[in-house]
Structures are given as structure tokens and as C-alpha cells.
Amino acid sequence: MRKISFIILSLFIVVITSCQRKSADQQIELPAGMHAATILEVKQASNYSYFHVFEENRKFWMASTILDAKEGDVIYYTDAFEMKDFKSKELNKTFESIMFVNDASLTFEKPEVKSPGAVNPQQVGNLELAKAEGGMTMEEIYKNKENLDGKVVSIRGIIVKYNRNIMKKNWAHIQDGTSFDGHYDLTITTNDTLAEGNIAVFTGTIHLNKDFGHGYAYDIIMEDAKASDVEDTSAGI
Asked: Quick check: 62 and 91 in contact, CB under 8 A?
């Protein structure tokens, strides 16, 4: 009888301790801009990890570069953008909405403050956009960049990262699904009001080796871009 009582008491202590640990985890104060999502389901592919997660009373799908994570783990991140009606050919699954995370981590770290152009966002997979009429693709821009300095160029792309009102300009990273020598992303500045996930034709002046100071230095950048034919990714890619 005493042995049974001891076992029950031991189990009770384990449960209480587990609850206390869970409560302590929930009380962690995250820095501004940092998110924490609990993994409910994992689907691994060749280049991406897909996670069904729970965060702030909602469930949603997210994707990152390959991450060795399992159900119950917590993913910390600060940089993500939404794609709608995204189809993964490898998983044979269409996600009505999915967040692509650029800095997913299983450890809690204070995020490093970076300029909008310090690190290129993750390349969007399965992206195919029609070339702008009279414009260029990302591949063509990078192949011919030495001849484009100071010239006006048009390109159709999707905004994968967007920052408002920095040095009196809006800053965006765009991609079109093409690349050259590892370059798939172009930084632009614009006065137009846009959002991550917008697809548009961007027309602006290409500049090489531009340094704005304060960590804003670019080998290539499109400045004062005007956006036309703006659409949302919900229209399909």
C-alpha cells in the first residue's frame, strides 16, 4: 500500500513539475518583432521544411530551409512573408496560405538589427512570372549589370520583403523566379505604397556600387522605382 502511494506521489510531482516548466516557457518575454510558434506537424522536402504551427491562438503553415525539427518544438523567427495558393510539387499539396520564414531557429536568441539590404531573403521556390513587356528578367539584369548603370529598366517581380519610410523611401526586395550566378533578388527603392506579396512591374534606374552609409551598401540597386500592374498573390502565380 505504501509502495503504491509512493508511486502515485511520484507521478503527481512529475506532472506538477512538467506544468511548471510549460508555464515558465510561456512566460518568456520575446523582443519586439520576434515570434515563437509551436510545431504541430512536420513535412520534410528536398529543399524546404514545412511546419503546421500554433501561434497566438491560430494555426497556420510555415516553410523554411531544411530544419531538423519535430512535433512539440518551438520555432523562433523575425522575418517572414506570406504566399497564397502556393503549390509544393514535391508534397503534391497546395497551401491556401503559407508563411516563408527566412531566419527560423529552434533556439531563443536576440535578433540582430540589420539594414533592409544586409541579407537577401530566401529564394521563393516554384515562382514563375511573365516577363514585363519591354522589360528584363532578374537573370538578364545580373548578366548585363555592367552595362545597365544609370539606365532605366523594367522588371516584373514579387515583393518578398518590404520596409516603409527609411531615409524618406520605401525599400523592397523583389524576385521573379530567375537567377544568375546565385543572384535572384533585387533591392529597390520607391515612393509607392506597396506590401509584401504584391506582384508588379517595377520601372526604375539601376545603380551599381551604391553606398548610402549606415550599412546601406549595394552592388546593384534599382532606385525611384514606379510600380504598375500591381496584383496580389491570391490571383495565383
From this structure: no
